[in-house]
């Protein structure tokens, strides 16, 4: 096991060394794990190999500016760079590589594998986060780390594991976090200000969801938040997905689905969480995917939103029956 891991570190370093220009991308609608993993890997490669041109691309998110800045690239000017894809298993969800001609792909991800196959590929669904994998890589290779890189990696791990609450938090996660904190000596408690800072409007909005969530007999929760409601609470669409992790450990819920309409892209954005049935295989049928117990979908027609809701409810019913037996 340890031997296999060393092989993958070697392969990763070898392919990074081979290319003078490197573009690092991740999924659309990024979260702190996606952005922190690409910025920390970019900064580590820059620190270790100052002559390389390394870019972290994709649309920025105001809220996550504290992680650092992303780069704009001129795809035409880059000469067949190495493309590093982080925290994303499928091409359709990669942000910003439309016009890019790349020579090879290095993929590092903790989602179940889909259509992206890396020339060098490190996919491990047992990891809490992509940041845990980047931290492991840096700690075990010649890649360098500074305070900011360590802070970003810690932030990504804490976010994706939801403060070490979620299923994929492992002994290995704590081991990596211990090493990361031990070598960097960062003030990790101070980082929670960035991660958990929020407005009272968002808290009021959370109360709205709690009060208006429809819960079925099969412990399946559903809410469709209209744009009128968003304006009433003075929050943006992303506030809906920001809330979805706050509904774990509620007796009456084993699966919950939050829906909001994205007017700009004319699409219903669906976020699903479960601590019962496996949900990504169901979301796959509705232009969605993700992890076993944390998935999402982008749906054109509200009828399909209702069908997905029904499928999840049936999965909950079956899950509860199995639990009884
Ligand atoms: Mn992630």
Describe this structure in words.
By secondary structure, this protein is of the alpha/beta class. It folds into 2 domains: about 1-195, inorganic pyrophosphatase (n-terminal core); about 200-325, Diaminopimelate Epimerase, Chain A, domain 1, CATH 3.10.310. About 40% of the residues lie in helices and about 20% in strands. It is built from 11 helices and 11 strands. It has helices spanning about 1-20, 30-50, 130-140, 145-160, 170-185, 190-195, 200-210, 225-230, 240-245, 280-285, 300-325, and strands at about 20-25, 55, 80-85, 105-110, 120-125, 215, 220-225, 255-260, 265-275, 290, 295-300. It has a 6-stranded mixed β-sheet with strand order 6-7-8-9-11-10. A 5-stranded parallel β-sheet has the order 2-1-3-4-5. The longest helix is centred in the last third of the chain and has 23 residues, at about 300-325. The chain is globular and about 60 Å long. The two termini are about 35 Å apart. The protein binds manganese (II) ion. The site of manganese (II) ion has 6 residues, from loops.
Oligomer kind: single chain
Counting helices, strands and paired strands, the structural category is alpha/beta
Give the number of DSSP strands: 11
Helix content: 40-55%
Question: Mind telling me the C-alpha Rg?
Answer: 20 Å
CATH homologous superfamily of the largest domain? inorganic pyrophosphatase (n-terminal core)
Strand order of the largest sheet: 6-7-8-9-11-10
The total number of structural domains is 2
Kindly identify the CATH topology of the largest domain: inorganic pyrophosphatase (n-terminal core)
Low-confidence stretches: none
Compute the separation of the termini in Å.
36 Å
Write the CATH architecture name of the largest domain: Alpha-Beta Complex
Q: Please count the helical segments.
A: 11
* Coarse shape: globular
């Amino acid at each position: 096991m340890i031997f296999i891991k060393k092989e993958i570190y070697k392969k990763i370093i070898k392919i990074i060394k081979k290319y003078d220009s490197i573009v690092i991308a991740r999924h659309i609608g990024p979260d702190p794990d996606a952005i922190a993993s690409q910025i920390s890997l970019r900064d580590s490669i820059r620190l270790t190999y100052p002559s390389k041109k390394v870019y972290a691309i994709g649309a920025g998110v105001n809220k996550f500016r504290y992680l650092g800045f992303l780069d704009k690239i001129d795809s035409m000017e880059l000469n067949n760079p190495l493309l590093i894809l982080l925290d994303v298993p499928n091409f359709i969800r990669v942000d910003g590589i439309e016009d890019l001609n790349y020579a090879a792909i290095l993929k590092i991800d903790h989602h179940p594998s889909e259509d992206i196959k890396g020339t060098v590929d490190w996919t491990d669904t047992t990891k809490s986060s992509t940041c845990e994998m980047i931290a492991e890589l840096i700690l075990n290779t010649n890649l360098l780390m500074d305070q900011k890189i360590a802070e970003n990696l810690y932030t990504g791990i804490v976010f994706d594991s939801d403060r070490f609450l979620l299923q994929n938090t492992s002994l290995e996660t704590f081991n990596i976090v211990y090493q990361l904190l031990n070598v960097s000596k960062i003030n990790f408690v101070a980082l929670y200000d960035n991660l958990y800072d929020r407005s009272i409007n968002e808290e009021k909005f959370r109360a709205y969801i709690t009060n208006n969530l429809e819960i079925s007999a099969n412990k399946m929760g559903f809410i469709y938040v209209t744009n009128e409601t968003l304006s009433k609470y003075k929050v943006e669409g992303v506030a809906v997905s920001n809330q979805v992790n706050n509904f774990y450990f509620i007796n009456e819920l084993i699966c919950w689905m939050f829906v909001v309409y994205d007017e700009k892209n004319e699409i219903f954005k669906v976020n699903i969480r479960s601590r019962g049935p496996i949900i990504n295989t169901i979301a796959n049928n509705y232009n969605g995917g993700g992890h076993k117990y944390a998935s999402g979908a982008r749906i054109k027609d509200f009828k399909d939103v209702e069908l997905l809701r029904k499928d999840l409810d049936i999965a909950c019913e079956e899950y509860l029956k199995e639990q009884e037996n």
